[in-house]
Amino acid sequence: MPKLLGLNVHPLKSGAIRPVRSIGVLPGGLRGDRTWMVVDGAGRLVSARDVHGLFHVVADTPDTDAAVTSALRLRKPGLPDLHLDEPAGEPEPVRLFSLDLLAVPARADADAWIRAALDRDDVRLVWCDDPTRRTLQPGFSQPGDHAAFPDSFPVTVASTASLRQLNDWIAEHALELGEEPAAPLPMERFRPNLVVDADEPFAEDRWEALTIGGVRFRVGKPVGRCAMTTIDPASLTTAKEPIRTLARHRRWDGKTLFAVHLVPEGSGIVSVGDEVEVEVS
């Protein structure tokens, strides 16, 4: 039976990945995942697609670092740590891609900190006080499904077998073009919440649900990938992969696909090492 090899939380949308050994699961996703977001002066999402340096902003909660005693701690080299409580103001309109949502603004010193961290004077930090206000994509969700600030669905899962196949395709394509194959891409490029050690590449195309740690996760739909996967999170440089190769092998309905979206159907705790029970179509 497959096992859960990796578990990742992203307290700040597009911020540094925070690996954990175990985490609580709620119907809206992993506890604390993507509940904070950077927006511009008009309230629109600012992601690492726009400002690559967001990858270097480290946001921790008590779930990702036991030393954190506030709701959120922000860190970046060259700046003092900033500790924040959950803001208590009234929610204001924000825009996540085409979605009009509500979020509570953080305090003024948080805005000053994130502006210094990103070297932009028009950005602000906001927090999702009530993820149940957001409904998910019609046709792929059920009544009551909700989330905070992920792109689409509460949880994503990727398999090591699929990544190995993708890296093989990337190397083969580079040789066909007379290029020197680059180092294999790490799983971090895809920022999945859950990493599973499946044996068959892209077996997840047939998954209907996963049960991990007693929590059932229903499959929503495949994850369409964007240019953010072409950014190296360490160097912040960009390249053509993996989109170039995904477009050859994993293109459907105009989207390049890798990993799948999940919706938790209950609450519980999942931990690295848990067995993964797969339901297939």
TrEMBL record:
Residues 129-279 form the MOSC domain. It holds the Pfam family MOSC_N. GO terms for molecular function: catalytic activity; molybdenum ion binding; pyridoxal phosphate binding. This is MOSC domain-containing protein. Transmembrane segments: none annotated. SUPFAM superfamilies: MOSC N-terminal domain-like (SSF141673), PK beta-barrel domain-like (SSF50800). InterPro entries: MoCF_Sase_C, MOCOS_middle, Pyrv_Knase-like_insert_dom_sf. It comes from the Bacteria. PANTHER family: MITOCHONDRIAL AMIDOXIME REDUCING COMPONENT 1, MOLYBDOPTERIN COFACTOR SULFURASE MOSC.
